[in-house]
Each structure stands twice: as structure tokens, then as C-alpha cells.
Amino acid sequence: MKRRVSPREAKRMMQRMGLSMGEVPDVQEVIIKTATKEITVENPEVAILEMHGQKIFQVTGGTVEEKTVEKAITVPEEDVQLVAQQAKVSLEEARAALEQTKGDLAQAILLLTQT
Fold first, then answer.
1. What is the C-alpha R_g of the chain?
2. CB of 41 within 8 A of CB of 67?
3. Domain-wise residue ranges, the chain
4. Which of 13, 88, 114, 115 sees the fewest Cβ atoms within 10 Å?
5. Angle formed at CA 79 by CA 78 and CA 83, multiple of 5 degrees
6. 0.85 exceeded by pTM
């Protein structure tokens, strides 16, 4: 049969191992961002476990919402100038077309020259 550890004993054992644990009060939301998605946890409970100078955040409960995030592409200025020149449009129009076609030069030129 397993012996139950009281909260007081657990706290003492954690202190002996160099661990400390606390709660972050009044957390409204936690946002986790990756290159392709954003995860939002509303009204979570957040605990911080500190061990040997490292902090570990534990997020529990709450309402979880995931959404995919499209990464904005960076269009080289030479590409913008080339598309503007070939399609005979302004630099702004060329940049917008390149962003819309995710940097595809030929597709951007076709998009701008089709009537």
C-alpha cells in the first residue's frame, strides 16, 4: 500500500531538491506562437516550477483556441522592379502581386498583364 504524502511533506521534499513552485495570479490568457499557428488559452491556471535557475511554466484548464497563421513573405526589391518593368505597372502594384503569388515572378507578371 502506498503512503500518501501530505502537502507539507511534499513542499519540504521539493525544497530539499532545490525546487520551488508558485502560482501566477489573475492570468487572463496565454498565447503560444509558432511559425504556422497561434494557440490561445483563455482563463488558464498557470504554475511556475523553478529548479536550478530554470523556470518551467505549467498551463492548465481554460478554453483553448487554435488558428493557423500565414507567414508574410519578404519580396526582394530586385523582383519587385523586374515585375514592375515587365508588366509595366507601379512598384506598389508589383509588390502586391508578388505577395499575392507568394513570390512567384511569372505568376505575378501574368496576374498583372491579364485584362
1. 26
2. no
3. 7-68, 77-113
4. 115
5. 120
6. no
For 43-98, the pLDDT digits (tens) are 999 999 888 888 999 999 889 999 988 776 788 999 999 999 999 999 999 999 99
Q: What is the pLDDT of residue 74?
A: 82
Amino acid at 1: M
**Helical H segments across the chain, by residue range:** 7-16, 77-87, 91-100, 105-113
Give the architecture (CATH level 2) of 7-68: Single Sheet (2.20)
Q: In this structure, how many other beta carbons lie within 10 angstroms of the beta carbon of residue 14?
A: 14
Which three cell numbers mark 58? Answer: 505549467
Counting every residue written for the chain, the total comes to 115
Cβ neighbors of 71 (< 8 A, separation 6 or more) are 35, 36
Decide if 113 contacts 101 (C-beta within 8 A).
Answer: no
Element (H, E) at 46: strand 45-51
Look-up: residue for cell 507539507? Answer: 8
